[in-house]
Design goal:
There is one protein chain. The protein is an alpha+beta fold and 340 residues long. The protein folds into two domains: 147 residues, PhyR, sigma-like (SL) domain (Butyryl-CoA Dehydrogenase, subunit A, domain 3), CATH 1.20.140.160; 119 residues, Roll (Nuclear Transport Factor 2, Chain: A), CATH 3.10.450.50. The chain is built from eleven helices and six strands. The chain has a six-stranded mixed β-sheet. A hairpin with a 6-residue loop joins strand 4 and strand 5. Helix 1 packs antiparallel against helix 2, helix 1 crosses helix 3 and helix 6 packs across helix 7. The longest helix has 23 residues. It starts with 17 loop residues before the first helix and ends in a 9-residue tail after the last helix. This is ECF RNA polymerase sigma factor SigG. InterPro entries: NTF2-like_dom_sf, RNA_pol_sigma-70-like, RNA_pol_sigma-70_dom, RNA_pol_sigma-G_actinobac, RNA_pol_sigma70_r2, RNA_pol_sigma70_r4_t2, RNA_pol_sigma_r2, RNA_pol_sigma_r3/r4-like. Belongs to the sigma-70 factor family. ECF subfamily. Keywords: Sigma factor, Transcription, Transcription regulation.
């Protein structure tokens, strides 16, 4: 594989020593972890798979002939590790919202769902969005391709089509380069790519999730008002921040809500479950996010409760994805949020 986008470091003989290999892991770890996350839809699986990628690369370092780039070689190992991991697990993809389930009204009664949910990704783990710009053949901007909506959309694809779309449309690799990585011909890669794009068009009229505006001072103010509304239990202030058609989903629960009234009716049933809330700002999938701690009526300790991913648009919140217990608190450590 030649001319893969991003930093290219030719590798020749003699075989890399440990120090040189460690430098490579530092240089490529974040982008490979993000690639594994997009493939798997899981932050925790991405951690395991990038570790597995470097272990396999270290063991096979003598087999690399030096004619391509180290980066391409590592992507080959990582992608194939992901494909093998998907084949070995019970479900081929993770979801952000249960397919075909209509929006709910009132109290959530279903309880945690036995489904495999898409996890958020901390911005602190993202590769540099300037140095990591995709190649000229990419169809998606780097920031667009880290959004929850995008990662959720590509989870609909069969694993090989998912890999092809990521390599070609996100990283900007050619069909020839992708064929060298995945095996098969350039024609088979192009065929898989066309099928993947057609599947995305079925869900998104333009073949992609709606592109939102980039971060701005108004986004920072919106985040502050959101955090304040939670900490003061200001329901009117919270609802005012939402767009009229906003959506509210809360993995791992099945229920999801759409529109200010439906969201308000639900929030009224749950805000009194705790004596209060405290918030810590963070970022996930290129969006503002908040870690929310709750104080139990019988306790004096603020404990992790939920991780909120906020999707703003035109000064309002268009989508809230709130990871509630038991999934939410399990994510706090990955986002650098304290345990209490």
């Amino acid at each position: 594989m030649t001319d893969a986008p991003g930093p290219v470091e030719p590798l020749g003989r003699p075989v890399l020593d440990r120090l040189a290999f460690e430098r490579l892991t530092v240089a490529h770890r974040r982008e490979l972890k993000l690639h594994c996350y997009r493939m798997m839809g899981s932050l925790h699986e991405a951690d395991d798979l990038v570790q597995d990628t470097f272990l396999r690369a270290w063991r096979a370092r003598s087999q690399f002939d030096g004619r391509g780039s180290v980066r391409g070689w590592l992507y080959t190992i990582a992608t194939n590790s992901c494909l093998n991991a998907i084949k070995a697990r019970s479900t081929a993809h993770r979801i952000l919202q249960q397919p075909e389930r209509p929006p709910s009204n009132g109290r959530a009664v279903g309880g945690p769902a036995e489904l495999t949910w898409l996890e958020p990704y901390p911005d602190a783990e993202l590769p540099d969005l300037v140095d990591g710009e995709p190649g000229p053949e990419a169809r998606y901007e780097t920031r667009e391709a880290v959004q929850l909506a995008f990662v959720a959309a590509i989870q609909l694809l069969p694993p090989r089509q998912r890999a092809v779309l990521l390599l070609c449309d996100v990283l900007g690799w050619s069909a020839v380069e992708s064929a060298q990585l995945l095996g098969g011909s350039a024609a088979s890669i192009n065929s898989a790519l066309q099928r993947a794009r057609a599947t995305l068009r079925e869900r998104y009229p333009e073949g992609r999730p709606v592109q939102r505006s980039r971060s701005s001072p108004e986004e920072g103010l919106l985040l502050e008002r959101y955090m304040h509304a939670w900490q003061t239990a200001n329901l009117d202030g919270f609802i005012e921040l939402l767009r009229e058609d906003a959506t509210y989903q809360m993995p791992p629960w099945r229920e999801w809500y759409q529109g200010r009234k439906a969201i308000r009716d639900f929030i009224e049933t749950v805000w009194g479950n705790f004596a209060g809330y405290r918030t810590v700002a963070t970022r996930a999938n290129g969006h503002p996010a908040v870690g929310v701690y709750a104080l139990d009526h019988r306790d004096r300790v603020w404990r992790p409760h939920s991780l909120h991913v906020i999707e703003p648009a035109d000064g309002k919140i268009v989508s809230l994805t709130i990871y509630v217990p038991p999934l939410g608190p399990e994510l706090f450590a990955a986002f650098g949020l304290p345990p209490v």
